Amino acid sequence: MAEKWEWETQREKKRVRMVVAYDGTKYHGWQLQDNGITIESELNRCLSALLGEEIRVIGASRTDSGVHALGNVAVFDMASRIPPEKISYALNQRLPEDIRIQKSDEVSLDWHPRYCQSRKTYEYRIYRGEFPMPVKRLYSYFTYHVLQVEKMRQAAGYLEGEHDFKSFCQTGAQVESTVRTIYKIQVEEQGADLVIRVCGNGFLYNMVRIIAGTLIEVGQGKRTPDSMGQILEAKNRSAAGPTAPAHGLTLVKYEFDI
Could you give the residue numbers annotated as active site? Predict the structure, then answer.
């Protein structure tokens, strides 16, 4: 009888997918941490209170401390009868104002955001000026250096396609493979802002921030555009530039092939 009850309980479960936007300034990243609040811990806390059951979300991307998102994706299972598409409205009444659910819907119980084909787009923002702009300080990296944008674009072109990005992965990261595909990388001027937009099938730990830091050095004349090919071939973190600060990075969107 107990086995039958467990089977019926599982059958009644629903898997809900959420598109999550957040300002990562005050959070210790996405993933649960012992030393501070995270996006995941806040979602778990508020969902558990809302639904009256213990909820543990699974995020598509574990963004670092200080990184922002317009469209991270998370799923969780629930037994509640609340319509999945209404979860966003109810949950936003409980979440802190720097976290908001943009959409919620039901997916199959075997759908997992980390185990399906997807495209992920990040933007790294740089503010160029004589002095910092206070309203941009949390969302852009400031530089007073004049950047050679065309050379940055040339350098970025070397990174498109499938490559071993070991040189652009933080030392010590535990991954099965450092091979990834970048579908497109753009360096776009928006007034005083310079936006590095990268779309790929997946990213290594700190990969976009290391790419940004390396492209900034190209823009400053510290590296040549064709050095990017040499960095890829080196397969060594020390060959690439510095890791750009987290606050300039935003996860813009996920696109899934369902």
Answer: 64
